[in-house]
Structures are given as C-alpha cells and as structure tokens.
Amino acid sequence: MITGKNYIGNVLSSLGKVTFKTFNPQINAENEIVFTEASNIEIEKAINLATEAFKTFKTISGEKKSLFLNEIVNEIEALGDELITTYCNETGLPEGRAMGERGRTVFQLRSFANLVKEGSWVEASIDTANPKRTPIPKVDLRKMLVALGPVVVFGASNFPLAYSTAGGDTAAALAAGCPVIVKSHPMHAGTGELVASAIIQAAEKTGMPNGIFSNLNSSGIDVGVSLVKHPQVKAVGFTGSIKGGRALYNMAAQRPEPIPVFAEMGSINPVVLLPKAVKNKGKNWAQTYANSITLGSGQFCTNPGLILGIKNTDLTNFIQALSEEIVKIEPSCMLHPNIIGNYENNKAKILIQKGLQTVANLSKEVSANYGRQAITTVEGSTFLTNINLHQEVFGPFSMVVQCENIAQLEEIILKLEGQLTGTILAETEELPKHQNIVNALQNRVGRIIFNGVPTGVEVCPSMVHGGPYPASTDSRFTAVGINSIKRWVRPFSFQNWPNELLPNELKNENPLGITRLVDGKLTSSKI
C-alpha cells in the first residue's frame, strides 16, 4: 500500500470493505496483491483536498509546474524494473510494449513541462483602452485561459501508463493548474499505485499543495459514479467504450451544474482502398494491414476495423491475400478474460449476420486469453442496411466491404458514425479524381491518413486524437499532444483592471516574456 504523508495519493484500505485482485492473462491466474475499493469517506476526502489545493495550484507559476511535471518523470523512471514487471503481470503485454509506453508517458509529461515553462499557451489577448473613441469610449480588456478546477480522470484498460494514472489526461490537467483525482482501472491497479506513488513523491519534493493528486481504486462503477456526480468536480477525462463514456457524459449533463466530459470512445477507423492502389500494390497493402489489424491483439482505439473498396477482381485478390497473411501471424495475449470474452462475443454476433462471409477465422488451439484473428467481407448494399455491421469489434478483427461503385462508397462513408481516423490508400494521381471521397471521409474523422496505417498515434502539437461522436464527446479537442490542455481550461477576461493586480501573463510589462495578441498583433513586447 502506498503511503504519502498528507497526500491522499492512495486508497487507505483500513476504511474500505470491498477487495479485489488484478489478473495475469499470460498465466491465466490472479495476481497476489489485494486492493481495496475506495470508501465514501476517502472519496469525499480526495475531493475536498483537491478543492482546497485548487485555490493555490491555479496561481502557481508555469516554471514551478514545469519542475513538478519533470520531477514526476524522474520518479517514474526511478521505479525501474518494478513498474515494468507489474505492468506485464497485469496486462499480458510484452516487456517491450511496457517500456515503450513508459517512454511515451514521460515524453508527454516533459512536453507539458516545456509548454507551461514557456507560458504562451494561455493565449493572452489584450485590447487596450481608448477613452477618446466616439461615440462610445473603448474599455481595456485582457483575456487568458484559466484552469477549470478539480478533474477526475478514468484510467484506460488498454494503456496502463500512457492513458492512465500519469497519462495524457492527467499530465494536461496538472499542466493547466487543475488538481487530479484518478479513478484507477481495476485491471492494472498495481501499476496505477506505483505511478501514483511517483506523482506523490514529485508533489512533495517540489512543494505542491496537499491534495493536488489522488488515486482511488475501484473494482466496479460506484466510485466513478460518486466522483462524477460530486458538485466540487469540474471536468472528467475518459478513454474507453462508447457505453462507458456515454454513461459518464449523461451523468455529468444531468447534474444541477453540468460539467464537460471529454471521452475518447469507439472507432472502427475506416480504410478506403481506391482502385489503382489495390491493383498496383494490393498484396503489399494486404501484408501491411494484416500486421496492423493484429498489432497488440487489435487492442487499440485506432485499429483498422473496416476496409472499403470497389468490387472487382483486384479487390477479390486483396481479400484473398489479406486472409492468407493474417492467419500466418501468431495470436497474442489479450488484456483480461473479460476483454477476450467481449471480443469473442462481439465477433460471434457479427459472424452470424446475414450476407456476411468469413474469409479468415483462425481456429487452431491457442493459450488461454489469446485472441484469434478474423477477416470478413460483405456487399456494400448489405452493409448499408444492417447497422450491426457498423459496430466496433475490439480485437484482431476487420471487415472488407465490397462497394458496387464510387457513389456507393461515398454513401457508406457518409452514413458511418464519427471516427478517430480515416485512411485512404491510393496512387497520388487518384486523389484529385476522388475529392468527394476525401471530403466525405474528412467529415467523419479527426485524422485522415494517406498510404499508411492508423495504428500509432504520434505525440506532437499537430496530432488530433478525437473526432465526431462517438469517437469523442467533443470533436473540437484532441486527447493527445500539448493542445489537449485546452480541455481543462476556460477563457476569462479582466476589464479595466489595475495593471499591478493583473496576472503576470496580462501585465503591461509582460514579465514572463510570452507571446500575446495585443490590439490585434502577435508580439512579445511590453505595452
């Protein structure tokens, strides 16, 4: 059990009554450590501490927040092999994946540390007064982004580090000046507690206010429900299923004071195969996509679950090649018996749909909790009329839709739900001829890819990881990259405020030296 002085960065198990264990899917058995579900007293304490901490934390300088975020990196790295071993024992994922995800996590934290240290992210805007303007004198207005308040972050099942305790949501919220309460995912509670200990140590070493971070364990939904409904919580971050994200969204909207829920949810990530691409490079794309579909047992929100092409001999050859390539790949372990159980159930529901043809369905014996890949195909007209075929199958599964013509392909794209990504596989000269397809796809996704795979989300300022509902609950924001900080802030204006009482970001002297919009012009100069 983590102990953290005055910080509630753990679940104080003496108060909780419900216990649970994590599960090692590789050996198909529970891990030894017992975790205790957070009690109502602990939930209340975490929220009260966060509320009190916010009064101070929202005013802490970017330089000090940067030191805190960088110290979290130091503490995570200091966990060493224990973190990697715990991660692997709770997920069944290989050591290389664990180390890669740790690297991504610390890179995100460093990116936000650099962002807040420089300071221009607050988008300071100043319109100076003009008392001589007629007929109405112009007032002095100064605007910047300010933190929302305590944020609840739900850990993701498929990313125990990068989208969980110290993942992108937490890093962005802390950078914005929002205390964070993490509802740890029960599948990797041990990994979560180790990372929580790192955040707590970093907070203590850098003098952050008590209550800036808490980590609450829960095996069910009750703790999460209590957190989202609490009036002192001001925003929620979630990565997971459409069902879970929508439930939180509805709950938050029904509060007396509704709050934003930034949920990144389901996506089948359509891939469009244009005729020349499938004719010239069909076999190569088949091999590439066999690997992408099975990467990490398909447990990525950007897994390519739908491939759209024009029905002809070339597409038939592609389907045959894809079905041959995908069964050559050895199955890998999925995260949890519940995950593979859902995968098998959802796959079975799809496979019995009328008009669907199964072209590859690995049937050989595999170890417990290993996901067996499958490829199906269906006519475009059948896909259009059967909404069940549009649903995500979370795992190593994909469907090829054979469209009658370009017009039907466009119709299918327009009728898809919102997606995180869309991909076009084409020869360069094909794109101008099919701009309607590009436009249709752009309207349904947050990121469009040319001649690549959707799996793999680069952490950088130009990345958009979001999209129209149900890919996310608000397509104006990204869940990845430094711009994700904008989810946890709101614009705020000072009118005719004394210069000496303004935040440093808005003072005439510009003591931070940040870039500001002053009377319509970007500048870092003094006023």
Brief summary of the model shown:
With 527 residues, the chain is an alpha/beta fold.
Instruction: Give the amount of beta strand, in percent.
Output: 15-25%
Structural class based on helices, strands and sheet pairing = alpha/beta
Secondary structure tally, helices = 14
The rough form would be described as: globular
- The beta-strand count equals 21
Distance linking N and C termini = 53 Å
The main β sheet shows up as:
7 strands, mixed
**Rounded Rg:** 25 Å
Q: Report strand order across the widest sheet.
A: 13-15-16-11-10-17-18
Give helix % range.
25-40%
Mean pLDDT: 95
Stretches where pLDDT is under 50 for at least 5 consecutive residues are 1-14
Folded structure, characterized:
With about 525 residues, the protein is α/β, with parallel strands linked by helices. Helices cover about 35% and strands about 20% of the residues. It is built from 14 helices and 21 strands. The strands form five sheets. A seven-stranded mixed beta sheet has the order 13-15-16-11-10-17-18, sandwiched between helices. A five-stranded mixed beta sheet has the order 19-4-3-20-21, with no helix packed on it. Strands 7-6-5-8-9 form a five-stranded parallel beta sheet, sandwiched between helices. Helix 3 (about 80-90) packs antiparallel against helix 6 (about 190-205) and helix 13 (about 405-415) runs parallel beside helix 14 (about 435-440). The radius of gyration is 25 Å and the shape is globular. It starts with 18 loop residues before the first strand and ends with a strand. Mean pLDDT is about 95; it is low at about 1-15.
